[in-house]
């Protein structure tokens, strides 16, 4: 697909991003069960995709993003900065100091739900040892204990 899908918080629209759905701009799609992803989503896991920053466009609202950064619950031990919509509080993306040049976006914030099933469908699960026992592995996804991406080169 040549078009660039858009993502924005539902019912707000103050911030809008666009991104590619194929390599090289799209680096990875994954489910993460780490304790930080539970806290940041207020759920049991996060469904993420990673974009090379050179391919990420802020259509509007970049100055409306608020940030929160910390390192003590991050698997890499390095700072992770969260970018939230300043109007509705939706987490738009995260940037990890361990992965310079990349942003981790949320599949659930993408407007086109068809993409959740296709190009943005997760390809692996990580931190599976932290997965709640009432969830099963997703069919067909590679399973990783701990971080699947131990360095930028493995993104
Ligand atoms: Zn995580
Ligand atoms: Zn918003």
TrEMBL record:
SUPFAM superfamilies: Mss4-like
Molecular function via GO: carbon-sulfur lyase activity; metal ion binding
CENP-V/GFA domain: residues covered: 1-124
Record-given protein name: GFA domain-containing protein
Entry keyword S-adenosyl-L-methionine: no
PANTHER family documented for this protein: CENP-V_GFA DOMAIN-CONTAINING PROTEIN, GFA DOMAIN-CONTAINING PROTEIN
Pfam family, one: GFA
Keyword Zinc annotated: yes
Provenance organism: Mycena chlorophos
Keywords for this protein: Lyase, Metal-binding, Zinc
UniProt similarity note: Belongs to the Gfa family.
InterPro entries given in the database record: CENP-V/GFA, Mss4-like_sf
Source domain of life: Eukaryota
């Amino acid at each position: 697909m040549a078009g660039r899908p858009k993502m924005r918080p539902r019912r707000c629209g103050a911030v809008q991003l666009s991104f590619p759905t194929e390599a090289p701009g799209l680096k990875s799609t994954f489910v993460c069960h780490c304790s930080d992803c539970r806290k940041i989503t207020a759920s049991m896991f996060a469904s993420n995709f990673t974009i090379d920053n050179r391919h990420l466009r802020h259509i509007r609202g970049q100055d409306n993003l608020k940030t929160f950064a910390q390192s003590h619950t991050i698997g890499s031990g390095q700072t992770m900065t969260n970018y939230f919509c300043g109007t509705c509080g939706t987490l738009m993306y995260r940037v990890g100091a361990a992965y310079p040049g990349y942003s981790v976006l949320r599949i659930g914030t993408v407007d086109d739900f068809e993409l959740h099933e296709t190009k943005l469908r997760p390809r692996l699960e990580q931190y599976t040892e932290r997965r709640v026992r009432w969830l099963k592995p997703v069919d067909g996804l590679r399973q990783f204990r701990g971080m699947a991406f131990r360095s930028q080169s493995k993104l």
